[in-house]
């Protein structure tokens, strides 16, 4: 680690599997709390996510930093081919515990990530444009990426509806119906969502492993989902969930109206609005009193405006950065 900062007791090492999940969760949760958006990432969340990583080998593509045996930062790289564009995207990701920021750890991990990305890319024979993407949600992270030549290319925002009162009554478009979710529906629901997001900037083609991750999610609550059908076709969906452990630890009752998608033939008919309204009522009936979601600001279908019109307000922003490899 030629860029290692002079921190007493600092050591860099490889990922140790499941044994590192509590430390990773601690860094992530402390990071979110420091930016004023407390959340609870659990060991179960991490276990499901890391079991289905895409083009990222934790034995070679991940690094952990610890001080006197305590994990204080980590980083990882991965890559994929963008479905909508001709980019091959290499992602650099890293988090530093807030107590250890501004001491050079972020720069050391970024330098290691970029070196590893170039090693991976050297073995790739592709005609695609190759770029490195990174994301930052606090001023220090943004300054770090900008100082290494990255330029902002997009933003995502977290949004919250602080109450579940006065939910508008929005009817479904003619010919569509919402049905209870059955096990035999799961494949069609997942495939419809994957198809709908295939033209989303930065997204990749989904694989069977992604389907297994969908099935294994610890927040798999089909009774809260609202799936619109047109005969035997899934037209659109909102797959809400509640992070019960997070609500308990943070003393709140919030649900998430996420995985909102409408397939092309059924767009611009008010389906997303109708499903979102129904989903808010489902969360209210489940005992929740607020709702959250995330959205890409540059979404070409005006999702941000839709969510604002449904009572959601922006509360935090994540900035996407990119540079040529």
Can you tell me about this structure?
- By secondary structure, the chain is an alpha+beta fold.
- Helices cover 30% and strands 27% of the residues.
- Strand 3 (70-81) and strand 4 form a beta hairpin.
- It is globular.
- The two termini are 21 Å apart.
Question: Strands, helices and their partners?
Answer:
Elements lengths: L9 E4 L7 H14 L8 H8 L11 E6 L2 E12 L5 E10 L8 H18 L6 E8 L2 H9 L3 E11 L15 E2 L7 H11 L11 H9 L9 E5 L2 E6 L5 H7 L3 E3 L4 E2 L8 H15 L4 E7 L6 H7 L3 E12 L1
Parallel strand pairs: 4-5, 10-12
Antiparallel strand pairs: 1-2, 2-3, 3-4, 5-13, 6-12, 6-13, 7-8, 8-9, 9-11
Q: Could you give the count of β-strands?
A: 13
Mean pLDDT over the full residue set: 95
Task: Tell me the structural class.
Answer: alpha+beta
Q: Approximately how much beta-strand content do the residues carry?
A: 25-35%
Low-confidence stretches: none
**Secondary structure: helix percent:** 25-40%
SSE topology string: EHHEEEHEHEEHHEEHEEHEHE
Please work out how many helical segments DSSP would assign. Answer: 9
Global morphology: globular
Main sheet specs: 9 strands, mixed
Distance between the termini: 21 Å
Concise overview:
The chain contains 9 helices and 13 strands. The chain has 325 residues and is α+β, with helices and mostly antiparallel strands. It has a 9-stranded mixed β-sheet.
């Amino acid at each position: 680690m030629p860029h290692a900062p002079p921190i007493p007791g600092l050591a860099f090492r490889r990922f140790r599997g499941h044994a590192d999940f509590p430390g990773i969760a601690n860094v992530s949760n402390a990071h979110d709390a420091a930016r004023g958006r407390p959340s609870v990432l659990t060991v179960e969340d991490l276990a499901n996510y890391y079991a289905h990583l895409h083009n990222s080998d934790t034995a070679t593509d991940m690094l952990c930093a610890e001080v006197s045996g305590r994990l204080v930062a980590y980083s990882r790289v991965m890559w994929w081919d963008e479905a909508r564009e001709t980019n091959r995207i290499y992602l650099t990701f890293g988090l530093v515990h807030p107590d250890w920021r501004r001491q050079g750890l972020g720069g050391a991990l970024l330098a290691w990530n970029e070196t590893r990305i170039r090693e991976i890319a050297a073995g790739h024979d592709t005609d695609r444009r190759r770029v490195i993407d990174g994301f930052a949600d606090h001023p220090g992270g943004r300054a770090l990426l900008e100082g290494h030549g990255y330029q902002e290319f997009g933003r995502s925002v977290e949004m919250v509806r602080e109450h579940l009162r006065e939910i508008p009554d929005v009817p479904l478009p003619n010919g569509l119906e919402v049905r209870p979710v059955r096990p035999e529906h799961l494949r069609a629901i997942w495939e419809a969502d994957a198809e709908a997001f295939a033209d989303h900037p930065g997204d990749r083609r989904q694989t069977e492993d992604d389907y297994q991750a969908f099935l294994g999610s610890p927040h798999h609550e089909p009774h809260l989902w609202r799936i619109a059908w047109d005969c035997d076709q899934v037209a659109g969906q909102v797959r809400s969930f509640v992070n019960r452990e997070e609500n308990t630890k943070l003393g709140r009752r919030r649900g998430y109206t996420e995985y909102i998608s409408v397939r092309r033939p059924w767009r611009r008919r008010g389906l997303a609005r109708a499903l979102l309204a129904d989903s808010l009522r489902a969360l209210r009936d489940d005992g929740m009193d607020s709702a959250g979601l995330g959205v890409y600001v540059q979404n070409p279908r005006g999702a941000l405006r839709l969510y604002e019109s449904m009572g959601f307000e922006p509360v935090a922003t994540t900035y996407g950065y990119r540079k040529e490899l």
